[in-house]
From TrEMBL:
Residues 77-87 have a biased composition (Basic and acidic residues). This is Nuclear receptor coactivator 5. The keyword Transmembrane helix does not apply. The lineage of its organism: Eukaryota, Metazoa, Chordata, Craniata, Vertebrata. It comes from Saguinus oedipus (Cotton-top tamarin). Residues 1-17 form the signal peptide. The gene is NCOA5_2. It comes from the Eukaryota. Keywords: Receptor, Signal. Residues 77-102, 137-161 are annotated as: Disordered. InterPro entries: Anticodon-bd_dom_sf (IPR036621), Nuc_rcpt_coact/corep (IPR052600). Gene3D superfamilies: Anticodon-binding domain. The keyword Ribonucleoprotein does not apply.
């Protein structure tokens, strides 16, 4: 959170200063006057959405007010950002349709990886695709599983003593 301090002179009214702060993108404004300073309170202004003014608020209560007001604002901004990112990704993503009209296995696998729901037919397509791929790689039936794969070299280098 960024904080700016503005000391008003007699030429600028408080309402004008609050409008300027709001237009500048600040979400909150805390106003301290001689009277509120004597009472150890201040006026908390929420400048986004529907502007609100809370007068004679103790500092601790004002901080709670700011935190509670900021949380929904932050969540709304994050949701808008997610929607915008999804829109941009959708524009960049190539079409997931084959010429015959069905989804490509690669796109189905992407949907599965994104934890999206797939219908039984789509799941079967992924399974069949993986079986075919395994058969091509192994050159045999998918019913037989290969033996354990060893990452050790068949020989051990001699280390001089």
């Amino acid at each position: 959170m960024v904080v700016n301090l503005i000391l008003l002179n007699t030429e600028v009214s408080l309402s004008q200063a609050l409008e300027d702060v709001s237009r500048g993108g600040s979400l909150f404004a805390i106003v301290i006057t001689q009277q509120t300073q004597m009472h150890h309170t201040f006026t908390a202004n929420i400048t986004f959405g529907t502007p609100q003014e809370h007068r004679d608020v103790p500092p601790a209560d004002a901080m709670v007010l700011v935190a509670r007001s900021y949380e929904p604002y932050k969540n709304e901004c994050q949701e808008k950002e997610r929607e915008e990112t999804a829109r941009k990704a959708a524009k960049m993503k190539p079409s997931c349709k084959k010429e015959r009209g069905g989804p490509e296995e690669g796109c189905l696998i992407s949907l599965l990886a994104d934890n999206r729901c797939l219908i039984a037919k789509e799941t079967d397509e992924i399974i069949n695709h993986l079986r075919e791929r395994k058969e091509r790689l192994m050159g045999s039936s998918t019913d037989s599983l290969p033996g354990p794969i060893s990452c050790q070299p068949p020989w051990r280098p001699r280390v001089p003593r």
